[in-house]
Amino acid sequence: MSAPNPFELQRAGVRQAFDRAGARYEAAALLQARVAEELLERLALFALAPQVVLDLGAGTGRVTRRLKRLYRRACVVALDLSPGMLQQAARHRTLLRRFERVCADATRLPLAAQSVDVIFSNLMLQWCDPPDEAFAEARRVLKPRGFFAFSTFGPDTLRELRAAWGEDGRTHVNRFLDMHDVGDALLRMGFSEPVLDVERTIVTYQDALTLMRDLKAIGAHNVTAGRARSLTGKDRLRAMLERYETHRRDGRLPATYEIIYGAAWAGRERNEHLSGPVGGADRPPAPGGEVQVPLSRIRRRRRP
Protein backbone atom coordinates (compact mmCIF):
# COMPACT_ATOMS: atom_id res chain seq x y z
CA MET A 1 0.00 0.00 0.00
CA SER A 2 1.46 3.39 -1.05
CA ALA A 3 1.94 6.15 1.49
CA PRO A 4 -0.73 8.88 1.47
CA ASN A 5 0.16 12.00 -0.51
CA PRO A 6 0.51 14.91 1.95
CA PHE A 7 -0.15 17.40 -0.88
CA GLU A 8 -3.44 15.82 -1.92
CA LEU A 9 -6.12 18.51 -2.05
CA GLN A 10 -9.39 17.79 -0.27
CA ARG A 11 -12.17 18.93 -2.59
CA ALA A 12 -14.69 19.54 0.19
CA GLY A 13 -12.18 21.81 1.90
CA VAL A 14 -11.57 23.72 -1.33
CA ARG A 15 -15.30 24.31 -1.79
CA GLN A 16 -15.82 25.44 1.80
CA ALA A 17 -12.86 27.84 1.67
CA PHE A 18 -14.15 29.57 -1.45
CA ASP A 19 -17.70 29.64 -0.11
CA ARG A 20 -16.47 31.62 2.89
CA ALA A 21 -14.40 33.95 0.70
CA GLY A 22 -17.10 34.78 -1.85
CA ALA A 23 -18.23 38.13 -0.46
CA ARG A 24 -14.72 39.60 -0.11
CA TYR A 25 -12.96 37.82 -2.95
CA GLU A 26 -12.90 40.59 -5.57
CA ALA A 27 -11.47 43.20 -3.20
CA ALA A 28 -8.49 40.94 -2.46
CA ALA A 29 -7.98 39.10 -5.78
CA LEU A 30 -5.85 41.78 -7.40
CA LEU A 31 -3.28 39.48 -8.94
CA GLN A 32 -6.02 37.16 -10.20
CA ALA A 33 -7.70 40.10 -11.93
CA ARG A 34 -4.45 41.16 -13.62
CA VAL A 35 -3.76 37.62 -14.86
CA ALA A 36 -7.33 37.39 -16.17
CA GLU A 37 -6.80 40.59 -18.17
CA GLU A 38 -3.66 39.13 -19.76
CA LEU A 39 -5.43 35.87 -20.60
CA LEU A 40 -8.39 37.76 -22.11
CA GLU A 41 -6.00 39.78 -24.28
CA ARG A 42 -4.40 36.59 -25.54
CA LEU A 43 -7.78 35.04 -26.28
CA ALA A 44 -8.92 38.12 -28.19
CA LEU A 45 -6.05 37.67 -30.66
CA PHE A 46 -7.90 34.70 -32.15
CA ALA A 47 -10.71 35.20 -34.67
CA LEU A 48 -13.04 32.88 -32.80
CA ALA A 49 -16.81 32.92 -33.22
CA PRO A 50 -17.96 30.39 -30.61
CA GLN A 51 -21.52 29.36 -29.93
CA VAL A 52 -20.82 28.10 -26.39
CA VAL A 53 -18.13 29.41 -24.04
CA LEU A 54 -17.32 27.86 -20.66
CA ASP A 55 -15.67 29.91 -17.92
CA LEU A 56 -14.17 27.04 -15.92
CA GLY A 57 -13.65 28.09 -12.32
CA ALA A 58 -15.55 31.33 -12.85
CA GLY A 59 -15.55 32.43 -9.21
CA THR A 60 -17.58 35.60 -8.77
CA GLY A 61 -18.32 35.95 -12.50
CA ARG A 62 -16.44 39.20 -13.05
CA VAL A 63 -14.48 37.67 -15.94
CA THR A 64 -17.53 35.78 -17.22
CA ARG A 65 -19.15 39.13 -17.90
CA ARG A 66 -16.07 40.13 -19.93
CA LEU A 67 -16.33 36.92 -21.93
CA LYS A 68 -19.96 37.69 -22.70
CA ARG A 69 -18.89 41.12 -23.94
CA LEU A 70 -16.20 39.54 -26.13
CA TYR A 71 -18.59 36.90 -27.51
CA ARG A 72 -21.94 38.68 -27.57
CA ARG A 73 -23.82 36.01 -29.50
CA ALA A 74 -22.47 33.04 -27.57
CA CYS A 75 -24.05 31.18 -24.69
CA VAL A 76 -21.56 31.83 -21.88
CA VAL A 77 -21.54 29.55 -18.84
CA ALA A 78 -19.96 30.37 -15.47
CA LEU A 79 -19.05 27.10 -13.76
CA ASP A 80 -17.58 26.90 -10.29
CA LEU A 81 -17.25 24.42 -7.44
CA SER A 82 -18.41 26.99 -4.89
CA PRO A 83 -22.11 27.93 -4.51
CA GLY A 84 -21.01 31.00 -2.55
CA MET A 85 -18.93 32.27 -5.44
CA LEU A 86 -21.76 31.75 -7.91
CA GLN A 87 -24.14 33.67 -5.66
CA GLN A 88 -21.80 36.63 -6.03
CA ALA A 89 -21.73 36.10 -9.81
CA ALA A 90 -25.39 37.12 -10.00
CA ARG A 91 -24.24 40.72 -9.45
CA HIS A 92 -22.40 40.68 -12.78
CA ARG A 93 -25.35 39.52 -14.85
CA THR A 94 -27.19 42.29 -16.67
CA LEU A 95 -29.92 42.35 -19.28
CA LEU A 96 -27.32 42.73 -22.03
CA ARG A 97 -24.64 40.58 -20.39
CA ARG A 98 -26.55 37.51 -19.28
CA PHE A 99 -24.72 34.26 -18.65
CA GLU A 100 -25.62 30.93 -17.14
CA ARG A 101 -24.36 29.71 -13.75
CA VAL A 102 -23.58 26.07 -13.01
CA CYS A 103 -22.24 24.71 -9.71
CA ALA A 104 -20.05 21.69 -10.45
CA ASP A 105 -16.61 20.16 -10.11
CA ALA A 106 -14.15 20.71 -12.97
CA THR A 107 -13.26 17.03 -12.78
CA ARG A 108 -16.90 15.95 -13.36
CA LEU A 109 -18.53 18.42 -15.74
CA PRO A 110 -22.32 18.09 -16.12
CA LEU A 111 -22.05 18.97 -19.82
CA ALA A 112 -22.57 16.89 -22.92
CA ALA A 113 -19.60 15.66 -24.93
CA GLN A 114 -18.53 17.99 -27.74
CA SER A 115 -20.88 20.76 -26.63
CA VAL A 116 -18.44 23.65 -25.98
CA ASP A 117 -16.41 25.74 -28.45
CA VAL A 118 -14.11 27.65 -26.07
CA ILE A 119 -13.02 26.95 -22.50
CA PHE A 120 -11.46 29.79 -20.50
CA SER A 121 -9.94 29.01 -17.10
CA ASN A 122 -8.13 31.59 -15.01
CA LEU A 123 -6.04 30.43 -12.03
CA MET A 124 -8.26 27.49 -11.15
CA LEU A 125 -6.34 24.41 -12.33
CA GLN A 126 -3.90 24.54 -9.40
CA TRP A 127 -6.85 23.36 -7.30
CA CYS A 128 -7.06 20.21 -9.45
CA ASP A 129 -3.87 18.36 -8.58
CA PRO A 130 -3.02 16.46 -10.69
CA PRO A 131 -4.85 18.25 -13.53
CA ASP A 132 -5.40 15.13 -15.64
CA GLU A 133 -9.07 14.65 -14.71
CA ALA A 134 -9.88 18.31 -15.33
CA PHE A 135 -8.04 18.22 -18.67
CA ALA A 136 -9.83 14.99 -19.64
CA GLU A 137 -13.20 16.57 -18.90
CA ALA A 138 -12.28 19.75 -20.79
CA ARG A 139 -11.24 17.64 -23.77
CA ARG A 140 -14.46 15.62 -23.57
CA VAL A 141 -16.82 18.60 -23.66
CA LEU A 142 -14.91 20.55 -26.33
CA LYS A 143 -16.06 20.25 -29.89
CA PRO A 144 -13.55 19.07 -32.49
CA ARG A 145 -11.05 21.90 -32.96
CA GLY A 146 -12.40 23.59 -29.82
CA PHE A 147 -10.01 25.93 -28.00
CA PHE A 148 -8.76 25.81 -24.40
CA ALA A 149 -7.09 28.87 -22.85
CA PHE A 150 -5.96 28.81 -19.24
CA SER A 151 -3.60 30.08 -16.58
CA THR A 152 -2.33 28.32 -13.48
CA PHE A 153 0.44 28.66 -10.90
CA GLY A 154 3.89 27.11 -11.28
CA PRO A 155 6.25 25.66 -8.63
CA ASP A 156 8.02 28.93 -7.72
CA THR A 157 4.74 30.38 -6.45
CA LEU A 158 4.99 31.49 -2.81
CA ARG A 159 8.51 30.08 -2.57
CA GLU A 160 9.43 32.56 0.18
CA LEU A 161 6.48 31.50 2.33
CA ARG A 162 7.27 27.83 1.79
CA ALA A 163 10.90 28.36 2.80
CA ALA A 164 9.90 30.39 5.86
CA TRP A 165 7.79 27.54 7.23
CA GLY A 166 10.75 25.19 6.91
CA GLU A 167 10.65 21.41 7.20
CA ASP A 168 8.43 20.19 10.01
CA GLY A 169 6.70 17.24 8.38
CA ARG A 170 3.61 19.32 7.60
CA THR A 171 2.45 20.95 4.36
CA HIS A 172 1.90 24.69 4.64
CA VAL A 173 1.85 25.71 0.96
CA ASN A 174 0.24 23.86 -1.93
CA ARG A 175 2.34 22.03 -4.49
CA PHE A 176 2.29 23.54 -8.00
CA LEU A 177 3.19 21.72 -11.20
CA ASP A 178 6.01 22.65 -13.56
CA MET A 179 5.09 24.02 -16.99
CA HIS A 180 6.48 20.91 -18.69
CA ASP A 181 4.34 18.64 -16.51
CA VAL A 182 1.27 20.70 -17.43
CA GLY A 183 2.12 20.35 -21.12
CA ASP A 184 2.64 16.60 -20.78
CA ALA A 185 -0.75 16.28 -19.07
CA LEU A 186 -2.45 18.14 -21.94
CA LEU A 187 -0.94 15.76 -24.48
CA ARG A 188 -1.89 12.71 -22.40
CA MET A 189 -5.49 13.85 -22.34
CA GLY A 190 -5.68 14.29 -26.11
CA PHE A 191 -5.05 17.99 -26.66
CA SER A 192 -3.17 19.14 -29.74
CA GLU A 193 -0.51 21.81 -30.27
CA PRO A 194 -0.24 23.02 -26.67
CA VAL A 195 1.61 26.31 -26.27
CA LEU A 196 2.75 27.38 -22.81
CA ASP A 197 4.86 30.18 -21.39
CA VAL A 198 5.74 31.48 -17.94
CA GLU A 199 5.72 34.87 -16.26
CA ARG A 200 7.14 35.51 -12.80
CA THR A 201 5.68 38.35 -10.79
CA ILE A 202 6.78 39.53 -7.36
CA VAL A 203 4.12 41.22 -5.25
CA THR A 204 5.51 43.03 -2.23
CA TYR A 205 4.01 43.33 1.24
CA GLN A 206 4.68 45.31 4.37
CA ASP A 207 4.73 42.10 6.43
CA ALA A 208 4.06 38.37 6.10
CA LEU A 209 0.83 38.51 8.09
CA THR A 210 -0.69 40.81 5.47
CA LEU A 211 0.21 38.27 2.80
CA MET A 212 -1.42 35.49 4.80
CA ARG A 213 -4.56 37.57 5.35
CA ASP A 214 -4.79 38.24 1.61
CA LEU A 215 -4.47 34.54 0.85
CA LYS A 216 -7.26 33.78 3.30
CA ALA A 217 -9.44 36.52 1.82
CA ILE A 218 -9.36 34.93 -1.64
CA GLY A 219 -10.08 31.45 -0.29
CA ALA A 220 -6.52 30.14 -0.71
CA HIS A 221 -6.55 28.11 2.48
CA ASN A 222 -4.29 25.16 3.16
CA VAL A 223 -6.53 22.18 2.42
CA THR A 224 -3.79 19.62 1.79
CA ALA A 225 -3.98 16.23 3.45
CA GLY A 226 -0.67 16.83 5.22
CA ARG A 227 -1.61 20.11 6.88
CA ALA A 228 -1.51 20.55 10.65
CA ARG A 229 -4.88 19.74 12.23
CA SER A 230 -4.48 22.11 15.18
CA LEU A 231 -3.81 25.81 15.55
CA THR A 232 -0.25 26.90 14.86
CA GLY A 233 1.56 27.65 18.10
CA LYS A 234 2.86 31.15 18.79
CA ASP A 235 6.47 29.97 18.80
CA ARG A 236 6.17 28.31 15.40
CA LEU A 237 4.42 31.33 13.92
CA ARG A 238 7.05 33.67 15.36
CA ALA A 239 9.84 31.51 13.94
CA MET A 240 8.20 31.54 10.50
CA LEU A 241 7.83 35.32 10.53
CA GLU A 242 11.47 35.73 11.53
CA ARG A 243 12.64 33.48 8.69
CA TYR A 244 10.47 35.37 6.20
CA GLU A 245 12.14 38.61 7.32
CA THR A 246 15.43 37.39 5.78
CA HIS A 247 13.82 38.02 2.37
CA ARG A 248 13.10 41.70 3.06
CA ARG A 249 14.44 44.06 0.42
CA ASP A 250 14.02 47.83 0.27
CA GLY A 251 11.68 47.71 3.25
CA ARG A 252 9.24 45.23 1.68
CA LEU A 253 8.69 41.47 1.77
CA PRO A 254 8.37 39.68 -1.60
CA ALA A 255 5.86 37.02 -2.58
CA THR A 256 6.76 35.33 -5.86
CA TYR A 257 4.08 34.07 -8.22
CA GLU A 258 5.01 31.90 -11.19
CA ILE A 259 2.16 32.12 -13.69
CA ILE A 260 1.81 29.58 -16.47
CA TYR A 261 -0.25 30.62 -19.49
CA GLY A 262 -1.45 27.84 -21.76
CA ALA A 263 -3.47 27.25 -24.90
CA ALA A 264 -4.34 24.06 -26.76
CA TRP A 265 -6.74 22.70 -29.37
CA ALA A 266 -9.08 19.76 -29.09
CA GLY A 267 -8.29 17.23 -31.78
CA ARG A 268 -5.32 16.70 -34.05
CA GLU A 269 -6.15 19.39 -36.58
CA ARG A 270 -7.28 22.97 -36.39
CA ASN A 271 -8.86 25.43 -38.81
CA GLU A 272 -6.10 27.51 -40.33
CA HIS A 273 -8.33 30.58 -40.49
CA LEU A 274 -8.54 30.45 -36.69
CA SER A 275 -4.80 30.24 -36.20
CA GLY A 276 -2.85 33.03 -34.60
CA PRO A 277 -0.27 33.73 -31.93
CA VAL A 278 -1.08 33.13 -28.31
CA GLY A 279 -0.10 36.51 -26.97
CA GLY A 280 3.48 36.39 -25.86
CA ALA A 281 4.04 32.76 -26.86
CA ASP A 282 5.99 33.67 -30.00
CA ARG A 283 8.29 36.16 -28.37
CA PRO A 284 11.09 35.27 -25.97
CA PRO A 285 10.60 36.09 -22.30
CA ALA A 286 12.41 39.00 -20.77
CA PRO A 287 15.70 38.13 -19.06
CA GLY A 288 14.85 36.51 -15.75
CA GLY A 289 11.16 36.72 -16.60
CA GLU A 290 10.43 38.61 -13.38
CA VAL A 291 8.51 41.79 -12.66
CA GLN A 292 8.43 43.37 -9.22
CA VAL A 293 5.03 44.88 -8.43
CA PRO A 294 4.22 46.67 -5.18
CA LEU A 295 0.76 45.69 -3.99
CA SER A 296 -0.35 49.31 -4.10
CA ARG A 297 0.22 49.45 -7.86
CA ILE A 298 -2.30 46.74 -8.66
CA ARG A 299 -4.95 47.69 -6.14
CA ARG A 300 -8.23 48.83 -7.67
CA ARG A 301 -9.40 51.99 -5.93
CA ARG A 302 -13.12 52.59 -5.46
CA ARG A 303 -14.53 55.73 -6.88
CA PRO A 304 -15.96 58.10 -4.30
What does this structure look like?
With 304 residues, the protein is α/β, with parallel strands linked by helices. The protein has a single domain, classed as Vaccinia Virus protein VP39 (Rossmann fold, 3-Layer(aba) Sandwich). The chain is 33% helix and 22% strand. The longest helix is centred in the first third of the chain and has 15 residues. The protein is globular and about 55 Å long.
Draw up the topology in text.
Layout: H1 11-21, H2 25-28, H3 30-44, E1 52-56, H4 62-70, E2 75-80, H5 83-89, E3 100-103, E4 116-122, H6 132-141, E5 142-153, H7 159-165, H8 179-188, E6 191-205, H9 208-217, H10 234-245, E7 253-266, E8 290-294, H11 295-298
Parallel strand pairs: 1-2, 1-4, 2-3, 4-5, 6-8
Antiparallel strand pairs: 5-7, 6-7
Helix pairs in contact: 3-4, 7-10
Rough shape? Answer: globular
CATH-assigned homologous superfamily: Vaccinia Virus protein VP39
Mean pLDDT level: 83
Largest sheet: 8 strands, mixed
Give the spatial strand order of the biggest sheet: 3-2-1-4-5-7-6-8
Q: Give the structural class.
A: alpha/beta
Any low-confidence stretches, pLDDT <50, length ≥5?
Answer: 269-304
CATH topology: Rossmann fold
C-alpha Rg (nearest Å): 19 Å
- Count of helical stretches: 11
Distance between the termini: 60 Å
Count of distinct structural domains: 1
The CATH class designation is Alpha Beta
| Architecture per CATH nomenclature, i.e. the level-2 architecture | 3-Layer(aba) Sandwich
Sketch the topology as an H/E string, one letter per element.
Answer: HHHEHEHEEHEHHEHHEEH
Task: Determine the strand fraction and express it as a percent band.
Answer: 15-25%
Helicity, as a percent range: 25-40%
Query: How many runs of DSSP E, i.e. beta strands?
Result: 8
